[in-house]
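Quick start: what a row looks like.
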Amino acid sequence: MEIVRKPSGKQKNFPIDAHACPRHKNPSAYPAILCFHSDMLRLSRFLAVCLLAAWVIAPSTARAAGRAHPAPHPPLQETGFLNRKIELHGITYRFQVYLPEQYRRDDHKQWPIILFLHGRGERGSEGMWQTQTGLPEEVRDHPERWPFVIVMPQCTLPGYWTDPAMMAMAMAALDQEAAEFHGDPQRTYLTGLSLGGYGAWELARSYPHRWAAIAIAAGGVFWSYAPERWQQASTLPAEYAHALRRTPVWLFHGTDDNVVPPRESELMYEAFKGGGGHVRLWLYQGLKHDCWTRAFNEPELPHWLLGHRLEGPAASHPGATELPALAERLVIPFHPPAQKLPPAQLDSLAGEYCDKKGNPTVTVFRQGDQLYEKNRQGDIAELGAESAYLFFYLNGSSTTRLIFQRDAQGRVTALILHDDRHEERWEKRKVSF
């Protein structure tokens, strides 16, 4: 539409047809009339061309931007603890599998694989509780020690691992994960704790040629829910030992276990020893039922597992077919024997120790011939001397150590708290006179 403005300011609308414009009929007759028809027509054509160009260019611009800033590719395979499920006889079971950080699906490398059976308290159907204790907990603390694919099925409530359905589910989960994640059939291992120790013994006897090595903590073959099995105490352990005479077994038990008596592991040890098997029994002095925290924290355990393959006892003995007989029974003290140090030595260690900001953290003091530590909350702990400058908590963790550092002149300058996972260093506050 064209707008024509007359000198009076009054506006009239005229048709788009240019020849209908009075100016075209007689331009000299309308000297003050402004006609914008041609200009508007050119402008509208220009805008239409711009819109068409924008419509054509926009997609290609987006594609070009995509090429300039490509989206990151997702990893070929997630690692860590992964949710899994398996269906067996119409029932879906949820469980977990652990893949070490170095795992790569596309390199087709075969990985050592562990089947881990949890204890009574982790039963359920959500598929995750079994990752809270035992081997999974240790893997979280020290992933560098465990270069394994680890399969962690979950026993349902109110079942037991020795139920045929649960044993079948555990083996099906192992088979499924081994196939998908390239589990090495020559390096397939079995572990279990407490109720899972019962199940591990059953799976070991039922599939004796499947396992390169077995490690069981606080387990046995005399189930607490089947006390009549004790009537076979003179014969039952030998049946397991005979079936597994070529399989290395490492047993762990607390000497004060009042849930699964340590006699269960003692009887299995004697049976393997009598049958010429390859067995180790470590008894943790003073520990009750929970010996698995200490057992799976043994740095030697993953190396011991990897040292065994189905075709031989160790990779360093290629072609070996016979596993050498071994019977090792050790009682592991909770703490080393505490040494007695002279008062002057203890006095040299006493003092206030501060963090990096100078805040007092602990105070070490002597009382009689004994050394104590007092923290900032006021709690006091008795210290035992493993050596002149290495101490432990007499009523604390078996892995925690206090290390007193000295300078070139032999003066104590700092205190280091070292446990299984980390270190903290505290400077000794200098005393001014």
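That is the whole record. The chain has three domains: 2-68, 80-332, 343-428. Residues 37-68 form the longest helix (32 residues).
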